[in-house]
Known about the structure:
homodimer; D-amino Acid Aminotransferase, Chain A, domain 1; 2 domains
Amino acid sequence: MRTVYVNGEFVAEDEAKVSIFDRGFLFADSVYEVTSVLDGKLIDFAGHCRRLRRSLRELQMTLRVSDEELLDIHRHLVEKNEIEEGLIYMQVTRGAADRDFAFPPEDTPATLVLFTQIKGLLDSPLAARGQKIFTVEDQRWGRCDIKTVQLLFPSLAKMESKSKGGDDAWLVRDGLVTEGSSNNAYIVLDNGTIVTRDLSNLILHGITRRAVLECARHLQMKVEERPFTIEEAKDAVEAFSTSASGFVCPVIEIDGTTIGSGEPGPVASKLREVYITEMRKAAI
Amino acid sequence: MRTVYVNGEFVAEDEAKVSIFDRGFLFADSVYEVTSVLDGKLIDFAGHCRRLRRSLRELQMTLRVSDEELLDIHRHLVEKNEIEEGLIYMQVTRGAADRDFAFPPEDTPATLVLFTQIKGLLDSPLAARGQKIFTVEDQRWGRCDIKTVQLLFPSLAKMESKSKGGDDAWLVRDGLVTEGSSNNAYIVLDNGTIVTRDLSNLILHGITRRAVLECARHLQMKVEERPFTIEEAKDAVEAFSTSASGFVCPVIEIDGTTIGSGEPGPVASKLREVYITEMRKAAI
């Protein structure tokens, strides 16, 4: 039985509840972060805190809990639930109030929820085999840069891919790949250049994306941040995705077309290795 | 203290909670309906049930509670909370399961939540005065025809309008009005024709919209279901919105431009009167 955190208290997971009047439940008026744990330590916690604060700011949401306190809660959960490898999920909502599209009074306390998931991240069978991707028309809202819980479409897209035998979906808007269902998307051209969508309101500003691109530049790999088409992806020598829980995860097939050799490629493998090494060193 | 309904039980509102693992909370994987109550009776309950079933079907969500049982729950809440005039809110989620973008096993029970709100609907000061509207670029997802709880954007749009002194927002996509933040949008041309956006994935298929258009046709009013621009709206002789809780509600100003005489117009007033009369007759 996990211990989880709900509004100032550590409780057993089956007692962890929020009001039905919580705006996270009624309006998806809520943002979240997922931080990975390796060796019992937090990966890029500062990056997740920064993005959480940005999401809150964009939605004029106030959380009266400091980053230091958030760190304490994360660490307490890691210890309590004995997480050597896994995830910590953190969600903030605008709080509970009688249902109204208008925001509740400003002094309405935000809801803060955290829970852990034990999960093997380093020794990933999916990363070893490589993902099969199906593309889906991106029908999400216009502010995908804010990490809200409006995740119904990514969930539907993932299910659509699974129904065809795929592992995940890449989303396509106006003929151009935006990102994966819960990760950023990359291709490697035959001249070795890594291409990934440039930051805008249409994609999540991945914490892992940022760190992996930094690794790539350190490794003297050429990076182009720009949109790419599915046709370009199918012609690529490699493809991969990045996310907090998947790190760097190779893609070997897109819409039934084999990418490159059909096996995880050297660029993705190298980046995965270097990213993990660097992140473990910096973990707190 | 209200009595509310949560998963088979009638409980006090401050005890009404759902698991933090509920997919309504974590993924906005959830749909809802709001039914009005007049004279202690339900307005167009069959219409709301039909739309709920459609929303569930579109999302492959299963609710093992029949329409008859839903009616019983509605009626019990009306009686228990002594609702003569007000709203009943009903929400269904895909249920609680450990967090995963993939759907949980099919036998995961849906979460069903209902609560009431006492609210004066007939004697509406806003309908008497007429609404001031500001337009906002429509940034919602591509399936606005499914009544999901992904309501963050409509909430933000309403707040943006309020910050400018408005009552509500009309959303505009590609230069054409889609609908209001939580209602359908209409204009009346100087030849008397009522224009409202045609049904598609871009707008909610309003239960009240359907009934009001039927009233209009009975009254020999001409109706055109097609997109219209903000410029056309500003040149209109009248404008109004329809929703389950607002019935027919006149609009007197759009982006600072007075519509028609600047007072609620005869078409909106007539439709409001006839709609209310007909609905009270048919209420159950």
